[in-house]
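Late entry, evening session. Most of the bench is empty. Finally got around to the prediction I had been postponing all week. Sequence below, unchanged from the version circulated by S.P.
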Amino acid sequence: MHVPQLTRGLVAAVTLTLSLVGGQAVAAPSADADTAADRASAARVVTYDASGSAEFRSAVDRGAAIWNEVVDAVELRPSAAGQRANIRVLADNGWPRAITTSLGNGTVYIGRQAVDQGYDTIRISSHELGHILGLPDRKPGPCSSLMSGSTAGTACTNPYPNTAEKAEVEGNFGSAFAPTAGAVPLNVMLVD
């Protein structure tokens, strides 16, 4: 459809008409502004509830912020009081894990067992949120791969997804939210 072209043409015509009859003329928005606005409004919002994450609350918030820094197609936001969240984040004494129910939905456990062994809490949080965003484990793997998880060792504190992982999440949420090949199977527990 040519709706954006028609809309820009209509705005230009109204602007010209107003200027001829003494009204205030304003510039029509540029195509670049429309594109930037479309990208900004295209992000799917996924909410998370970290109220059960105990001492890991700040690590969960930082993990979500990292994903928000590096991808455009999805935005992780804390849920409002009384709002049902897409992601529930809990702390427990086990190993970190995620249970996905659908793309962008599930439960994350920030397990104290890995923290007690020396794994970085922000990397754990980013990694587990990555599962909810459709990424599988990629083990064994280097520290530069967020989804390599524990195989990168306790010295690895990198909480950022690599270029391929970012592109996969963009693909998962970009095209009408259709998951790409190799995405995390749903209704499966992923223990890292």
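Two things to note before I forget:
Confidence is low (pLDDT under 50) at residues 1-37, 176-182.
The beta strands are 44-52, 74-78, 87-92, 97-102, 105-111, 188-191.
Will write this up properly tomorrow.
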